[in-house]
Amino acid sequence: MNPVEDEILQRARRGDEDAFREIIRQHEHQVAATVIGILGNGPEVDDLGQETFVQFYRSMDRFRGDSELGTYLTRIAINLSLNELKRRKRFTQFLGPGPPRNRNPVHNQKEQETAADVKGLVRLGLQRLPADFRSVIVLRLIDGYSTRETADILRLPQGTVLSRLARGQAKLKEIIDGMNGHTS
What is the mean pLDDT of residues 8-27? Predict the structure, then answer.
């Protein structure tokens, strides 16, 4: 951890609210990008972003500084996001499958306009990826973490990260091709 960030952290640990606000200011965009990358843009993004910092505040004294503060906060955001995905899955299983879907996953005009934009198309595709692949792709390709950093954040071997990245990219390509009406 760099000396400036360490000094801000030490001040926050002593109860300096301005220092803790500075930590939030420096890392809120990174946390939000991680949550959005995993869950998509929705109402729970702000809640999970806030919960990330609440959990960090509660565990601040246990943070040893073995990794960068941003990496630690990203790990918290990923864990909260994956828990939200599990909660959604349980909720969906409890309620049943819902209305039948047609073969084309883009249903309404708004989704079609979003899907026309490449970023929107990738975002929609990411939401259809299994969480294991999605978290690796978000960390490596969107947040820009190295393979080693991604492995540390997800607590996985580097080989597993590389495997999930390759398989996730292939699956994402299939999903995006399917949304565009292409067959491979």
Answer: 95
Q: State which CATH number among 1.20.120.80, 1.20.1070.10, 1.10.10.10, 2.40.50.140 fits the domain covering 106-184.
A: 1.10.10.10
Within 40-156, residue ranges assigned H as helices are 44-59, 69-95, 109-116, 118-128, 131-137, 147-154
Q: Residue for token digits 């084309």? A: 104
pTM score of the predicted model: 0.64
Give the Cα separation of 115 and 124 in Å (integer). Answer: 7
* Closest-CA residue to 56 (of 26, 89, 92, 101): 26
Q: Answer yes or no: are the C-beta atoms of 5 and 69 closer than 8 Å.
A: yes
Q: How distant, in Å, are the alpha carbons of 33, 59, 84, 182 from that of 172? A: 19, 35, 21, 13
H or E element in which residue 28 lies: helix 17-39
Task: Identify residue 155 by its one-letter amino acid code.
Answer: R
